[in-house]
Amino acid sequence: MYSAAPTANITVGTTPDRESLTDVADESLGRLVTLGKDVTLARRTVHESAAVPGLSQLVTFSVDVRKLVQYQVFLALVDAEDSSRRLVVEAALTAAPEEFDDVAEGFGDFVSSIRLDSPE
Prior knowledge:
alpha+beta
């Protein structure tokens, strides 16, 4: 049984960079379509950066009777020693619409802290 108010959460995953960020974002959206109802891509933004290219998207959907908002961020992190090697990091914040604004800034801080470890 679900509680009356869902708790916001952050999910992080990685995938080898075999596809474009748009393809990875489309796959993520497709997973939500299989899990929820009324899945809507509200906004998608490509973040052009030579150092860390990225893509973000805001998705709304319902699971059972709950309406949820998910902010997904996809970052292509480049290996400092071999620029042909990249890893795509996917971070997603899921929250109820009424709590989303309260937790979004903290999620932004979290995303901006994502880095590859450098060898010492």
